Amino acid sequence: GASPRAHSYTKYNTWSEIEAWTNTITSSNPSLVSKQIIGNTYEGRSMVLLKIGKSSASPKPAIFMDCGFHAREWISPAFCQWFVNEAVTTYGSDSAMTSLLNDMDVYVLPVFNVDGYVYSHTNDRMWRKTRSRNSGSSCVGTDPNRNFNAGWCTIGASSNPCSDTFCGSTPESEIESKNVANFIRNNKSTIKAYLTIHSYSQLLLFPYAYTFSLAADHSELLKVAEGASAALTSLYGTRYTSGPSAATIYPAAGGSDDWAYDLGVKYSYTFELRDTGYYGFLLPESQIKPTCEETMLAVKYIAAHVQKN
Ligand code: ING
Ligand code: ZN
Hints:
Strand content: 15-25%
Bound molecules: D-[(amino)carbonyl]phenylalanine, zinc ion
Structural class: alpha/beta
Number of strands: 8
């Protein structure tokens, strides 16, 4: 039959292109990539998780990274695709990537909020939330990054279903949140780091967002964030700010990084990728490559720190 055209890493792919790519990247790299479905979305789409790493007889420590929590933040799924491609194409030649994937597994969820991502392509480019129906309201969706069980709905979140920061009816009311939380809870003993990729603002954030109190590991988290930001900046001079979310961006309860941290995943970070607002969510495709290249340096810096700790 006709062979499909090669996947493009420098455009904003649709969900159907991304889903097809999860199959080809897995079957083309069977010794490095495996695929599992961690559950379905509200509208019944698959939540596809890729596991990247050299197989090993003993259980390996792992990093969990997700993209596409918020539908309109298109640079985020683009980065997860870029990361997986870099992993499989530089394993065996790049010493840091080779050593990382020999010692650890990296779980990559390329799109968390699949329904919202599809809706942002087909109906509303600025959609943020999930697409679940709310009882007693005609407004649709919950903010998945207000839906985790971390100070849930106490600050910087709304109980109004019409709000873009609606926290949902309960923690993990969204099936997408529940599927990810279940996976992380079930693999708690191996997951050493949690990375969640958003845009925009050029920030490297860590707990807490639900309180101004500093995390027990604040000084280490800050030191690693500053090292990762410096690595990122070294490529094109893109400036990042690092710090705890509440004081650095705004206080907000129910975020996944705070939840993962309180579960015991020490290295828990939220990235806010390019830019600082000129294009905002509408970052041109011409910036996908430089954004992903610089972000790789930060992610690899964090991964190397996690690997040696
Ligand atoms: N920013 C994040 C948001 O969900 C954030 C900021 C990080 C909130 C960590 C809570 C915890 O609002 C974007 N751009 O979505
Ligand atoms: Zn976001």
